[in-house]
# Entry
Amino acid sequence: MTEETALARLESLCARSERCHFELATKLRNWQVPGSVAERILQSLRENRFYDDERFARAFVREKYLFQRWGRNKIVSQLYAKRIDRATIDEALSEIEVRRYAANAFKLVAAKLKSLPEEMPQIEKRTRLLRYGVSRGYETSLIIKIIESRRLWNC
# Structure
């Protein structure tokens, strides 16, 4: 693949959705673009603002938190996997509203509770709810507070 073709394909990809440096570098490696050429392409993309890791992190947090209702832990681990630095992650996570975050967790746990059979023992329900909340990336302490709240069991 030529440098011009790779650049055009990545520009098109970045124009459709937010991308980070790691994703673009991975694409270039998969296309077997030599290292020096890949660096020039990535530099050109960065200078022309086709990608920005901070902008990517904010968009990623917004999407996963608002639409997929992921918790902070899952979001952080996915951003680490994309090689986003901790300061950028912390800044992006600061956009999460605390009340809405807790409300999302409550809604997820309440929906899961309704899907569990009535005859299931209480301790097993609590265990499943805890596992479910943690698997969605919410903090264990928050899920425990939700499980212990009377409001959940009165829904």
